[in-house]
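Exercise 3.2. Students should predict the tertiary structure of the chain below and write it as structure tokens, then compare their answer with the key that follows.

Predict this chain's 3D structure.
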Amino acid sequence: MSDVSDLDRTRYPHWATVPTRWSDNDQFGHVNNAVHYFVMDTVINDWLRQHDFDVARGDGTINLIPETGCRYLAEISYPDVFEVGLRALGVGRTSVRWECALVRGSDGVPVAVATSAHVFVDATTRRPTPVPEALRPSLEGLVVEG
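Answer key:
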């Protein structure tokens, strides 16, 4: 995972805003850590749908998540918003590794950095299949060198 103590927003080619909800706060008065994963998953899947990859379409290829990780840096509470930066750490033959920077909208403080991987698989056999060719250029456009 990246060091986001000095977050460089230009290292994340795609940004989205995700509101917190009243129900996201836990008994400690901040957004529960599990919500961070929902936020990351939402931003990634919205991005995929915007780039014409939608598992609901039923074209035979789906994406499964074999790995996730999250480093929590600061609290966020409702009614604040997450600003989420998305980039690809790498695009392989059958997979992509993602990184999301989650930032508190009210003051720009980094809240968390989260990673995950997607493996593209055949929907029936669940065996790895190549990254869809139509999607590959867009994914590669999310990779930031250096």
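Discussion points: DSSP finds two helices and five strands in the chain. The chain has one domain: 10-142.
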